Amino acid sequence: MNRWLLVLIAGLLLVWQPARANTTCTASMTNLNFPATTGAISDATATLTVTCSTGALSLLARARVNMCVSIFSGTDGGGTLAPRRMINSFNDPLQMQLYTDAARSSIWGARGDATVPNFLPLQFDYDVLLIGGSQTLTATLYGRIPAQTALNAGTYTNRFTAAADTRIEFRYAEQLLGTPPMPASCTSGGSAGTPSSFPFTVNGSVPNTCTLTPKPVPDLAFGNVPGLITSNVDRTTDIGLVCTGRTAWQIGLNNGLNASGTIRRMRNAGGQFVTYELYRNSGRTLRWGNTLGTDTQTGTGTGTAQSQTVFGRVAPQTPNVGSYSDTVTVTVTY
């Protein structure tokens, strides 16, 4: 009788003793690839996948995990979470940010960070049978490149590759029968899990672009002149453009609608002409044409507004009285 009583007690103790299988968790993140931007808001998303697994316990076992998912500034982030940034091969910065919500109002930060301590919390609750058990959760990483100016062209990245760039921390609880209490946090209660990281890369680009501003280009008006032009009539106008930084550009001017060969001409309603010329320099010695690398105006974009002056001249001549005009096409090549 006493021997059977001891066996029964031992059996009860075996059923209720704590679970002894270790729980492990791993995570992976897809790369975050932004569409190209020239300064406007650009949004993108990536997917975090986290799996927690527990070895075999019993027919009725269960495991619960409390996890914190942290993302820091990144290898190329310059050590700041607000704002985060990407860089190109010249170390030019492009600001961006990572969020936990679709409204992009809650920055995805890191547990314990003094600036952005907003980590992503995850909780797992799953059965662990004789062959073990696991649960996989996914979360969306919401990225945004905010509106910004004076950008430089190039391919930008920020690599979250090292253990210091991303981290999952968790505590787990296992129980052979019934449901164990959820650990109080990712750092207290239950048993401590082994932290790990989930490398990924944030990619973006700023293309080489140029835009004329304003468009069309302001007229070059020679004004009213006497019928007998005895001296040069000089006037100017300005071509404005905005090109992304480091973008090489050339501005060309064609010969107009009324040219005779390479001689530019204005025309009146009666089909009569006044010759004129356009130049790239104030001394009016460098003709402004449309042959790339030869007689165009060249420069490099700064990401801000630039202005190039067109120097016009009507040389001495004796035209007929009338109103003369011509249309010249401006071409920006980059």
What is this structure's SSE topology?
Blueprint: H1 2-16, E1 23-29, E2 32-33, E3 42-54, E4 61-71, E5 84-87, E6 93-99, E7 120-128, E8 133-145, E9 154-160, E10 166-175, E11 191-192, E12 200-206, E13 210-212, E14 233-243, E15 248-253, E16 264-267, E17 273-279, E18 297-300, E19 305-314, E20 330-333
Parallel strand pairs: 2-12
Antiparallel strand pairs: 1-3, 3-8, 4-7, 4-10, 5-6, 6-8, 9-12, 10-11, 13-14, 14-19, 15-18, 15-20, 16-17, 17-19
Description of the structure:
With 334 residues, this protein is mainly β. The protein has one helix at residues 2-16, and strands at residues 23-29, 32-33, 42-54, 61-71, 84-87, 93-99, 120-128, 133-145, 154-160, 166-175, 191-192, 200-206, 210-212, 233-243, 248-253, 264-267, 273-279, 297-300, 305-314, 330-333. A 5-stranded antiparallel sheet has the order 1-3-8-6-5, with no helix packed on it. The chain has a 5-stranded antiparallel sheet with strand order 13-14-19-17-16, with no helix packed on it. The longest helix is centred in the N-terminal third of the chain and has 15 residues, at 2-16.
Largest sheet: 5 strands, antiparallel
Please estimate the helix content. Answer: under 10%
The fraction of residues in strands falls at: 35-45%
Strand order of the largest sheet: 1-3-8-6-5
Order of helices and strands: HEEEEEEEEEEEEEEEEEEEE
Q: Which of globular, elongated, flat, extended, rod-shaped describes the shape?
A: rod-shaped
Radius of gyration, whole Å: 35 Å
Summed up, the helix count is 1
Counted beta strands: 20
Helix/strand-derived category reads: mainly beta
**Overall pLDDT level:** 92
**How far do the termini sit from each other?**
98 Å
Low-confidence stretches: 1-19
